[in-house]
Amino acid sequence: GKDGLADVKFRKLSRILVCGRVALCREIFGDTLNESRDPDHGGPDRYTSRFFLKHCFIEQAFDMLHERGFRMAGSCGSGTAGSVAEPKPGVDTEENRWNHYNEFVFVRE
To answer: In this entry, which stretches build a coiled coil (predicted)?
Structure first.
């Protein structure tokens, strides 16, 4: 930041979150899987929803799933396209205008 100080305001990072059985997530995504947000390092048969990928390329993630015999079983999404209401103090209106979330469900054939 300016004058060697860290910027207080920064943009949120988009991430591809991964959930499922730990051993299967590791098998599919290999070294592209980031496990740093999953504090429970129990056995590989447990389930987690705290992994994310080290890249943000959804096509690459889909290809990795397809190569392992998975197909998309469903998807859903939510988002905002702006609001006419007056924003609360301190809220970044530009950031809120483009908030969205997409979920894709894959099953092995």
So the answer is: none
- 2: in domain: no
Pure H helices in 1-109: 22-29, 58-67, 93-97
CA of 12: how far to CAs of 5, 9, 83, in Å? 19, 10, 20
- The answer to whether position 4 is within a domain reads no
**Residue 53: HSE in the Cβ half-sphere, 13 Å Cα cutoff:** 20
The pLDDT of residue 78: 82
Q: Kindly state the DSSP code that residue 54 receives in the 8-state scheme.
A: S
Report how many helices (DSSP H) and strands (DSSP E) the chain contains, helices first. Answer: 3, 5
Q: Tell me how many domains the chain contains.
A: 1
Q: Structure pTM?
A: 0.70
In a domain, 100, yes or no: yes
- Residue 5: inside a domain: no
Angle, CA of 1, 52 and 6, to the nearest 5°: 10
